[in-house]
Design goal:
Largest sheet: 7 strands, mixed
Radius of gyration: 28 Å
Strand order of the largest sheet: 3-5-1-12-9-10-11
Shape: globular
Length: 789
């Protein structure tokens, strides 16, 4: 591929050959961390090593700044739509203006007359594609028939891609697209969840029922019933979805794609176009946000490949913001919760039902209703989940899928029950606290420090000063409300492969096909490798986002940090064991009788854990063994014996101030206390949780996709009218990490953080709004008109 190669890693990684311990190489002491062209003297004595070097600062658990930060803020980081080659063709997508039916006729005559237009592709003249559903099944496709872009004349949703205009310039392609004339044969459509409510079909029970929830509810001393609505929400990452397909000749393709899983896209492209794996390479070194929207291959990559194969040229296709609203979304849903309790607040019964949105062609769903079984003790529980088919694209995962919405309803209902009981909402949760996963045979948690989250969060917030009466707290003309809620997410782990190459001059390259979607994966990978190998952080380079690298799953579900970090530990342990093998061959070796668990890599040497004076420099070991580099690739799996449940938890406390006359709501304070195992990087972790809190403000007060049901068309498909929080909406956010050792989940004791920061925030805010106003709003977002109705 002319002019292209593996993307350069971030600038902070590029300085890997700079010596951090100045002068060490020059005097031939360490042979580590110095320039690649300088080797230490062969006459180094083993005893000298420990006399000169100093212990390195641990990296795991510290506040390390993003190593890719400089590349991003200077513009050196390249995204999918920023790769250029000579003769690049620009593509623009034409989308349907009806929600259901078929294309009766195309007229591309005027578009083809525009100077600079090369071609217009439709379902009639496109290159060949697979003609069976199975070929379009990606790694996380739900049950059903996947959408096949530009496959035939059928229209499944408004905004569906129906043609691609190809031109020398993007502006020309966009103008020519406006000249395309399309006739449709329309069919009746439905995009209103409430209209389809009765037609929703039941899914298998999401969890085994306990006892008789209906009977227990009827006999309960205190009862609460509530219906809660969450609208469709869209992801809106900053980076637009885009694919740049580089035609490498002989039909080989290098594709720069916005995705959360390069190998998922690789398998998908090979399947759809019947291409050999070696003829396709997917690259995604940087991703400008995705939040779940990039888990599945999106249609632009198919259309870009179609165009490249049709023209045998390189092609770039970038979707507009409006077009991205046809890619997937958090499904809208109606939830009903029945809670029965004794007079002291302990629960007798829980029933949680949900109806969620999906498309007419795929059955996307997550378990919205079962979170109470992980949080609150109840001998009687029943869960139900139904799907309503609408003439919309398939819904998909969005940050905290199922928990963000399911926990909103659950924690709102718990707050309402506390009001009925005249009990402090925090006290109610403590009385109902569960130490076991009731959905899974009453197994204990590998760790659950939620009680401490409640304690530390309440103390930091000043919860004990809360007057429980609604409308009892004021600040001038504003009503003040304090609310709280619980957050919970799964601590997931997935098999992953990592390759580590260690060189004699003190540099390590760590490679895995995982993605960094902006969460800091580059940084935590470097931190873990640096500590495990005993290297300065600058001496570690990271390769990721390349389908040709060792196997990695999608980056989602908060599982990559735990998985790839422990994968690095596994691989570095293998390197340490290989180095020990070399050490045993050194004459008079001080490590001759050591076992692998008795040595560590520290400050450029292999050192006895019991006696630091027993050490040999890595450079000497590799030189003695005539090895200039050691490369190991290991796959790490996470066997679950089924004896523990693995989750992260949080306690959220929110303060709102509501203008009594106008109903305008401000979220003035939030405290989020999180228990998520061992924190790899306190700085990036803090950013993750803080970002989740900001998103929770949007979920509670702002975000809502509005559909004109007459046309099946989204009315606010832009970030001017689809409201998200901005600086003026965000005040004081305090994040607390509660210590939570976990020796069961994985060697590092790490749990993911991406989702937990969002879960529970909307409920805490909604509960605070009730406390401030005395008005309970059960349908999100909470807007001023709902407070005044």
């Amino acid at each position: 591929m002319a002019g292209f190669g593996t993307p350069r890693p971030p600038r902070a990684i590029d300085v890997s050959r700079r010596s951090v311990l100045q002068g060490a190489v020059a005097v031939g002491v360490l042979g580590y961390g110095g320039r690649a062209d300088v080797m230490p003297s062969a006459a180094i004595a083993v005893e000298q090593v420990s006399q000169v070097s100093k212990p390195m600062t641990p990296y795991i658990g510290t506040a390390v700044s993003r190593i890719d930060g400089h590349a991003k803020v200077t513009g050196a980081a390249k995204y999918a739509a920023e790769y250029n080659v000579p003769g690049l063709v620009h593509a623009f997508v034409v989308t349907s203006t009806v929600a259901k039916g078929r294309i009766a006729a195309f007229d591309a005559g005027e578009a083809l007359k525009v100077k600079g237009v090369i071609d217009v592709l439709t379902h009639k003249n496109r290159p060949s594609m697979a003609d069976n559903d199975k070929a379009y099944k990606d790694d996380v496709a739900p049950e059903g028939s996947p959408f096949r872009p530009l496959f035939d004349d059928k229209i499944k949703f408004n905004g569906q891609p129906i043609a691609v205009v190809l031109a020398d310039e993007w502006e020309i392609a966009r103008f020519a697209a406006s000249l395309l004339r399309v006739d449709y044969e329309e069919e009746a459509h439905v995009t209103d969840l409430y209209r389809q409510r009765e037609a929703a079909f039941a899914l298998p029970e999401p969890a085994k029922p306990r006892g008789d929830a209906a009977k227990a509810f009827a006999a309960a001393a205190m009862r609460h019933q509530g219906e809660y609505y969450v609208p469709i929400e869209h992801h809106n990452p900053m980076e637009l979805f885009a694919s740049t397909v580089i035609w490498d000749g002989d039909g080989k393709l290098t594709i720069y794609d916005k995705t959360q899983g390069v190998q998922n896209v690789h398998r998908y492209v090979c399947s759809v176009f019947d291409m050999k794996p070696d003829d396709v390479r997917i690259m995604s070194p940087y991703v400008g946000g995705a939040f779940g929207s990039g888990l599945r291959p999106q249609y632009q990559v198919v259309l870009a490949v179609l165009a490249a194969r049709a023209l045998q040229r390189s092609v770039r296709l970038v979707l507009t913001r409006q077009q991205m609203y046809a890619l997937g979304y958090r499904p809208g849903m109606i939830q009903r919760i029945d809670l029965g309790a004794k007079a002291d607040g302990t629960l007798d019964s829980i029933a949680h039902d949900a109806i969620t949105v999906t498309s007419q062609y795929e059955d996307f769903h997550r378990h919205e209703t079962t979170w109470s079984g992980l949080l609150y003790k109840s001998a009687n529980a029943k869960y139900m989940h139904k799907l309503a088919r609408l003439d919309l694209p398939t819904s998909c995962d969005m940050r905290g899928p199922s928990a963000t919405t399911g926990v909103y309803a659950l924690e709102s209902a718990m707050d309402e029950l506390a009001v009925v009981l005249k009990l402090d909402p925090l006290e109610l949760r403590l009385r109902c606290y569960s130490d076991r996963d009731q959905n899974n045979g009453e197994v204990p948690f590998s760790s659950k420090n939620l009680r401490e989250c409640y304690r530390q969060g309440a103390e930091a917030f000043g919860w004990n000063k809360r007057n429980p009466e609604p409308r009892s707290m004021r600040d001038g003309s504003e009503l003040v409300g304090w609310g709280m809620a619980t957050g919970i997410w799964e601590a997931l782990q997935v098999p992953i492969a990592v390759r580590v190459m260690l060189t004699a001059n003190g540099h390590a390259e760590v490679a895995s096909a995982t993605s960094d979607i902006g969460t800091g994966t580059y940084t935590i990978m470097a931190q873990v490798a640096a500590e495990m190998l005993g290297l300065p952080l600058d001496n570690v380079s990271i390769k990721l986002g390349d389908s040709s690298l060792p196997q990695s799953p999608l980056e989602g579900g908060s599982w990559i940090a735990a998985s790839v970090s422990n994968g690095i530990v596994t691989t570095c342990n293998a390197i340490r064991e290989e180095l020990l093998g070399l050490a045993k061959k050194v004459p008079n070796s001080p490590l001759a009788n050591a076992s692998p668990d008795q040595v560590a890599l520290v400050d450029g040497k292999l050192t006895s854990r019991q006696d630091a004076s027993r050490a040999i420099s890595i450079a000497d070991l590799m030189r003695h063994g005539a090895v200039d580099r050691i490369t190991r690739e290991e796959t790490t799996s996470f066997a679950d014996d089924g004896n523990h449940a693995h989750n992260t938890h949080s306690a959220l406390f929110a303060e709102v101030k509501v203008d009594e006359q106008l109903g305008v709501i401000r979220v003035t304070r939030i405290v989020s206390a999180v228990a998520a195992g061992r924190i790899l990087n306190t700085k990036t972790a803090h950013s993750q949780v803080m970002g989740g809190v900001v998103w929770g403000i949007g979920t509670a007060l702002l975000e809502e996709t509005l559909i004109d049901h007459k046309f099946g068309r989204i009315m606010n498909a832009n970030i001017a009218e689809y409201h998200v929080p901005v600086n003026a909406d965000v005040y004081d956010i305090k994040v607390i990490f509660v210590d939570e050792p976990d020796n069961t989940i994985n060697p590092l004791g790490v749990k993911g953080l991406g989702e937990i920061g969002l879960v529970g925030v909307a409920a805490a805010i909604a509960n605070a709004v009730y406390h401030a106003t005395g008005k309970r709003v059960r349908d999100l977002p909470i807007t001023l008109d709902k407070l005044q109705s």
